[in-house]
Write a structure and sequence with these properties.
This protein is of the alpha+beta class. The chain has one domain: Glutaredoxin, CATH 3.40.30.10. The chain contains 8 helices and 4 strands; from the N terminus they run βαβααααααββα. Strand 3 and strand 4 form a beta hairpin. Helix 3 packs antiparallel against helix 4, helix 4 packs across helix 5 and helix 5 packs across helix 6. The protein is globular and about 55 Å long.
Length: 214
């Protein structure tokens, strides 16, 4: 789509397995629609009150749920080597990669390192390997991960999310001010875009079990 296409803001986090699943699907889901994605990396602040990792049974379910979905998508999963890292660093590295037109590619491979291989997404070696795989300067990307300017850009995106979009979790998509939370809401996002542009959708009043976006 051209730059005149409507924006869809996509808030994601390398901490979130559901963000990984959404990242795998979203480009294809929106490919034929008059919109463009704006990728906004975020991460939970310390003592985040809605942290699923603080509820053991919830975390256990999330890992089970995302593993079975990923398997059906064709992607293996491994147990996480570390639940957390210094999250601002990989997200600042993403901003660097995005500046060079490689944001999505970098994100997908860093997600794969975390969830398919069980590696630490904030580890310098892991980030450097992903950078090199996509022709990025690994040394410069690691400098960006620790650079105040790149880290500030991540924080400013998070502030935008809170102030403009009332973000409370990820993945979160925002289209014309309307939020859609979760990998399982991508179909509803597609439906909203199609309706907004006068494109046909299934009449769910007649058949609730049909796919939403056709």
């Amino acid at each position: 789509m051209t730059d005149t296409a409507e924006p869809v803001r996509f808030y994601f986090s390398f901490r979130s397995p559901y963000s990984w699943l959404a990242m795998l699907r979203i480009e294809a889901a929106l490919a034929d629609l008059p919109v463009r994605l704006e990728y906004l990396p975020v991460f939970p602040p310390p003592n985040f009150p809605n942290d699923p990792a603080a509820v053991p049974n919830k975390l256990k379910y999330i890992l089970l749920d995302t593993a079975r979905i990923a398997q059906e998508y064709g992607f293996p999963t491994q147990p996480l080597g570390a639940m957390d890292t210094n999250w601002v660093r990989p997200h600042a590295a993403f901003i660097y990669a995005q500046d060079y037109g490689k944001g999505r590619e970098f994100a997908l491979d860093l997600y794969a390192a975390r969830f398919s291989r069980g590696l630490d997404a904030g580890d310098d070696g892991v980030m450097a390997d992903v950078a090199k795989a996509h022709g990025l300067d690994a040394k410069e990307l690691l400098k960006a991960a620790d650079d105040e300017g790149f880290q500030t850009r991540v924080v400013l995106g998070m502030i935008q999310g809170v102030q403009e979009d009332s973000i409370f979790g990820v993945p979160l998509f925002v289209f014309r001010g309307e939020p859609f939370w979760g990998n399982d809401r991508i179909d509803w996002l597609v439906r909203a875009i199609r309706l907004a542009h006068g494109l046909p959708v299934v009449d769910l009043k007649r058949d609730m079990l049909q796919p939403l976006d056709r």
